[in-house]
Amino acid sequence: MNVIVINDNAHVNGGAAKVAIQEARGLADRGHRVLFLCAVKPIAPELVHEKITVVCTEQHDFLSNPHRLQAALQGWWNRQAAKMAGELLRIVDSEETIVHLHTWSRALSASVIREAFDAEVPTICTLHDFQLACPTGTFFQHSSQQICRLRPLGMACLTTNCDTRSYSQKLWRSGRQLVQITAGNAPSGIRHFIAHSKLAGEVMRPYLPRESVIHALPICIESARNAPASPEQNEQFVYLGRLVREKGVLLAAHCAAAEGLPVTFAGAGPLLDEIRDANPRAIMTGWLNHAESVEHLRKSRALIFPSLWYETLGLVVLEAAAHGIPALVPDTSAAAEVVEDGVTGLHFKSGDELDLRARMREMKDNNLVRTLGRTAYERFWSSDHGSLDAHISSLESIYCKVLQHQPVGDAALTTQREVHSVR
Contact 228/320 with Cβ under 8 angstroms? Predict the structure, then answer.
């Protein structure tokens, strides 16, 4: 089949791009023709393949575009991307083609989604975030640092300054959302979705078309199977990821400082200075490549995953398990689905500094850390999380169901609404 992958970036800049690129390469290795539509370079080496054609508009994402008016207009409706998407869709057989949406809100815009609908090409969307419902894509109020439960685009939503930057930015995002719903016809025009966690499906279900199907697809990470690490011999707690407020990095910094525990923050972001102020002893590595991240993981006592928003999974939690490192995760996050409390890691009350500190103190027990890490390792390698082959086979099966236009009635919904846990 032909698979048109739509993703803002042609390189890994986060979990969503990593999944999009990994799946594109896996599908190409199976012999499928992959057309990767993106806006932002550089192009990842994984996309250099005889079966992959990268079609790039070569634009900025809207945050890095120095021309602010151009960025604002592009973010609402990217005409250049729409034109290129339309040309791409005209050269493929719609009966043997599927459009797979990953991310589009930072550069491509909903214009590319509308082109797929107009070409009547079957479309499926992976729920990497909550962009199809929430203007900010997070269901998170940055002002109060709490999960948002307001109705998206309702009066309370529109009058609440929940954006990480400014209220004017929130209004711009709300305008983008309205354009996406009306001109882009999304999500109302999409009938098939993929969720990597039960939580992602449950949170998004009220905002998706009633007749739509949510397909459960356990996430996969590519990791070499080496002997498990020995976390009980290590002292450093480690955080891997972007240094942004919704990820709970300040919470982790305060807790480590209060308990006198060494902590490393491996990543980059706008909160670098605030983390240093909160914990002057914290080690700050800056952004790391995958091999460097793995090295820090294997030298850690535990992974701290303190995210304050829901998340839709958390690839780094699986990466830690693959190396025998236990994880500390919040009870409201989708990551809690892949970390069994007291078995492969520990849960703590989301945003609760005292509870996280208590869990970190528990991690001082060498026997506990050793047992958690070894069980996490064994659970990971006995699951499909480490098998790209199994992941691509499941993805192909989902594509076939979409291409066959299987009827989506109440009976099908009853089954498909059960988005299985990927624990």
Answer: no
How far, CA to CA in Å, does 124 sit from each of 127, 353, 380?
10, 39, 28
Q: Which residues have C-beta within 8 Å of that of residue 56, sequence separation ≥ 6?
A: 10, 37, 38, 39, 40, 41, 43
Q: 322, 319, 325: which is closest to 346 by C-alpha?
A: 325
Report the domain count for the chain: 2
Whether the CB-CB separation of 212 and 192 falls below 8 Å is answered with yes
> For 335-388, how does the pLDDT look when each residue is reduced to its tens digit (9 = 90+)?
999 999 999 999 999 999 999 999 999 999 999 999 999 999 999 999 988 889
339: amino acid identity, one letter: V
Tell me, rounded to whole angstroms, the distance of Cα 15 from its chain centroid.
5
What domain range is 60 assigned to?
2-132+186-220+389-416
Residues with Cβ within 8 Å of residue 91, at least 6 apart in sequence:
none
What is the CB neighbour count within 10 angstroms for residue 405?
A: 10
Q: Which two tokens stand for residue 102?
A: 């990953």
From 132, 122, 212, 196, select the one nearest 413 (Cα to Cα). Answer: 212
pLDDT (tens digit per residue) in 404-420: 865 443 333 333 333 33
